[in-house]
Amino acid sequence: MFNDIRCHRRPTRTRREFVRDAFCGFGGLALASLLEQEQARAGVVDPLAPKRPHREAKARSVIFLFMAGGPSHLETFDPKPLLNRLEGQSRPKEFGEAKYQFVQSNAKLLGTRRTFRKYGQSGIEVSDLFPETARCIDDIAVIRSCHGDMVVHSAAQYELFTGRTVPGFPSMGSWVLYGLGSESDSLPAYVVMPDPKGALEAGQPMYMHGFLPAVYQPTMFRPGERPVLNLSLPEGVSNRERTRTLQLIRELNQATLDPSDQEFAARINAYDLAFKMQTEAPEVLDLSREPQETLDLYGVGKEPTHDYGRRCLLARKLVENGVRFVCVVSGGGAGNMQWDAHGDIEENHVRKAAETDRPIAGLLKDLKRRGLLDSTLVLWGGEFGRSPEAESGKGRDHHNLGFTMWMAGGGVKGGQVVGATDAIGLRAIEQPYHFRDVHTTVLHQLGLDQHKLTYPHLGRDERLTFVEGKVIQEIV
Amino acid sequence: MCGPLRICQRVRALSAHSRLALAFLLLSAGPDAWGGDGGLSDNDRFYREKIEPRLKLECFRCHSAEAPKLRGGLRLDSRAAMIEGGDTGPALVPGKPAESLLVQALRHQGGLSMPPKKPPLDEAIIADFEAWIRMGAPAPDGAPNAVAVATVSDEARHHWSFQPVRTVTPPSVRNSDWVRTPIDAFVLSKLEERHWQPAPAASRIEWIRRVSFDLTGLPPAPEEVDAFVSDASPAAFERVVDRLLDSPHYGERWGQHWLDLVRFAETEGYEYDRHIPEAWRYRDYVVRSLNDDKPFDRFVLEQLAGDEIAPDDLECRTASTFHRLGPVRRNAGNPDIALSRNEVLTERTDILGTTFLGLSVGCARCHNHKLEPIAQKDYYRLQAFVAATEEQNIVLAPEHVQKAWEEKAQKIKNEMQRLKKEAKLAKGAAKDELESQIEVLEDQLDSSLPTIPAVRNDFSKRTPIHVLKRGVWENKGELVGPRPPGILVPEDQPELAVDVADPRTRLARWLTSPDHPLTARVIVNRIWQQHFGSGLVKTLNDFGTKGDRPSHPELLDWLAKNLVQNGWHFKPIHRLLVLSSTYRQSSRSPSADEYSGKDPENRLHWRFSPRRLEAEEIRDAMLVASGRMNFKIGGPSVMVPVEKDLVSALYKPSQWNIARNADEYNRRSIYLIAKRNLRLPFMETFDAPALLSSCARRESSTHAPQALEMLNGRLSNEQADAFAARLERETGGSSQSFVDRAFRIALGRPPTDQESALALTFLREGSRKEFALAVFNLNGFLYVQ
After folding, report:
1. pTM of the entire structure?
2. Among A174, A231, A184, which Cα is nearest to A208's?
């Protein structure tokens, strides 16, 4: 009588609740009972156990290559010859209005110094900033008509990650983890690898789980050889010693265990999992035994690609081992250390592209040759693009009305361009896709339905897409 | 503008909040606005013949009152609904087919394509729609150009929570011996209806640990346990409860619950995460108020209107910090002052509904609440109460000190101005150097004088409150004045004048009037929830028609009445609850197998629900066990040393100023700074709230990173070291007494023989520190049973 039948409610206090959550709507009775048996054997209720998606999934994992600060579409994937011809002039009226953060209405248009060339079978134009990534273009679906609602970093970053322009809502990584659980019990299931150079405007809240239970929070990787906090033993404690301690904890807990209490059993199991993570994860996180050829592929060991290459390689190893969602951030610290090229678009983008081009291409090629690209959705983009108008002479301001993101793998049909901005790259005019549509598409590829993936909070069943999004049909 | 000082703030207007989507069931008056066909004009007939059938065929499945799941928040089953539109805006602009999203969607333009996943409808059909719209979209539902008006339906008016609180007497029960306080009669009566037995009483040891954590967030000392266990007097239980309620730690524990609810934080969030000057004063105010058992009506009044009722009373002004607690986005670049103001007002309005009314009024910001009888207009009428509320920092220093500070600050500002000019021209390393100098200067501006971050009314700056179409601040509709929501007052009750004196006092007085149906129910339900793990109404912040129904409605009313009649004091309510037989039950019931199948959530209270300690309790309990706890009460918040990369992840790392005195690191958790952009990993891992929205009930999750935190984390290992050292000191050399004392301190009880044997075996080889750490990792430590 007190059972509230709803999908994906809170993480499980009872096994019954758990099984209902996990299989709600599928009628997967056999599976449910199978799971129940498995759980009963292990004596656990694990909110991170793999859950069936709402429908057949094409992708199993997501790698989000987050270009923080807002990379220019005009210098990268969206050539605008007219913009070069109009350089130095005011924006012609017919293109309409735009609000920027800093640039005033009297600003002049700025052409690009980059040259574009056609690549691959598809012949998609890519700028000379990304010669390596361009070679993978036939696997890439370029979405030139993305748009968002906000033109300042923090709010736009929140919208990109959580679907809301205010902090406090769960990120897509947390939603995905909540929806699908984890396929690895020795690795954190949702990983964010920030740029070691520094912070971003929206701060930690953009990656976080918001009002979802803490179990769905990201694991923030630290720079250096030991990326996961608390994974290594405290100084002075040997492995053998700690194994005994764990044994003692288990025995003492079991001595007073009431067999009917699932919660206590779950906690005992959490210690087993912690131990497994402690022993198995370091191996995955260790890049020292990677073959030289692989390191070269990602540009590891060479500047300026070493850092981003390392993190991309780590991302590949993580998804290979069942990690659900990995975010690899390029850009951190003061604006010009991000893609936030207010002062000099050339200087900034040449540098940022050089850091990331080879690692990204390496990641795509490596995923592909390992047969992982089919099941791994790779998403590239920032919180907005950049203005057709110049800022301080050679820079570009933030710009949210039309910009480029791309997707590859995970069932996405590569080698195509979707949508278009107008002739100066100001506004998405053909097939405009909002962040919510990107979110919907990511969920869709993972077999999740934006309407079913909900969680009750303050009287509402919240979801990732605040306003209903649509699947980018052209690419799925 | 790209250096570390680059100030990036929003200018763009379109808030996503303006597009609230609620694709769920509708609660509204009957959808069938059209009656018979008699007397239709030609125009209307056009609608009836050409438009309506097509809508029914192609659209109503997703866009009408009958839709099993409403899509895009859009209804097309009345003209008014089409004009009101859905998530992406009005679907119909009469007379202007090109501007009507309906037509764009039919033509698959502008990113819309309807009906979905199908080719566009025949051109002739679309042409009919265009023709109809060009005519002005006449339809026989007689709602010319109106935005849908929500009137409160009878059904909603009769919803239980909007009814007056009833006077009830506790029911009679068969097993009247079990009734210790009146609440037991209500609980037992429900159990007896089912012929269920309450669980046997918990042991005294279990009970005192339970009630100590519950009322103070701290474990009982072994000596307190012993004294209680050997106290044969009938008043033994009451003595413990009175001691705990009189303890200054009561306010720290229950203050935290209140701070969760009002999403207390000491910084503004967003990229700058600016520190609100001395927001800790509000935290101390809350702790003090609870310790003093301040009547709840007074507590509400002071927070809502402290500045109005007693402008010269610093305590009341501190209470008004309540209005400063929401996240605030600061503007720079091309500022949009009206937008920022709208955001602040939104924060201030939403929290009123959640905290005091237990209603999700925030949903009505963009449209009439689709789940609750709250009109959009009601939302803005509520907002009108805070429209003149402005920030005011009250500096607590003599005038000459203030003056001296102002002069110093001016000098700093001038210097910054100068450096900024230089930086504009500089390049490369020189520029970076200048910018870091500016940053250092800016930090000096922060270190100001003792301050209360208060509010006051400034009617000259009062924001006119309009009903905002779809919540977008630029879409200004009707002007409204202050008035409570229509579901709670007579529908024709007039608004107050927009410049009425002391508007928030009026709101507070209305909220705390003895016959208000919600305020008392909402707060006693929260108290119940903290004691028993879940509320009598499970949805603590949602008492509306879509919220949970109370499991024990009479009990809820009895408690609410009791609270009000006894002067709104919490402490007598706590006594009623924790001294009850209901609360005294064991967490283990001999009938668990049977009852848990039928009532898995224990809503009938057939046993006591065990709970995991909250993040703060775990940390505090480790500090108590280790003997390191610094019990100092109140004062500025403490920043403790954390991993370097957490600090460097701040936009302004210089904000993290570690306490100079290391003793401060060991303060109770409530005194650690509540910084929105840097939450301690330990706290996060154990479900401390995100500080961004109201948290009525902590989650209690169980996962491996918690185990890793407790096993390998710095905090637990440091405290385990100190715990082991303390045990050594207090017990001499014997392993047996070491183990015995460890259990008594950390678990509140001696070890069983089996536990002793296991521990002693371990200690033959294992280190005492590892043993101490193991104790922190026991369920017996982490849970109260």
Report:
1. 0.79
2. A174
